[in-house]
């Protein structure tokens, strides 16, 4: 690479920072978990996984549950593991499934 008249050979460092321009994406479009009726509190349901293409804090994925029946379950904000926070019976679980599907 040539250096023309007036070029003094100085280097310029340009720092390019990451912006939070990627949303997390789940590894699957649908997760299905099963529980045995009258499960114990804290029973594992399933674990979800998502990834974010950003780096450092912008790429850190944290999990939370939302929705009408979210209080029946807990999710580890770092691992994505979902557990039951109460003992569910078959009839109640079926009602929850119908509500979430409508
Ligand atoms: Ca991001």
**Distance linking N and C termini:** 65 Å
Number of helices: 1
- Radius of gyration from the alpha-carbon trace, in angstroms: 24 Å
Structural class: alpha+beta
Percent of residues in beta strands?
Answer: 5-15%
Judging by the overall fold, what is the CATH architecture of the domain at 33-101?
Sandwich
Question: Can you tell me the CATH superfamily of the domain at 33-101?
Answer: Cadherins
Mean pLDDT: 87
Uncertain residue ranges: none
What top-tier CATH class of the domain at 33-101 fits best?
Mainly Beta
Secondary structure: helix percent:
10-25%
CATH fold-level name of the domain at 33-101: Immunoglobulin-like
Which ions, cofactors or small ligands are bound in this entry? calcium ion
Order the strands across the largest sheet as they lie in space. Answer: 2-5-4
The rough form would be described as rod-shaped
How many individual β-strands?
5
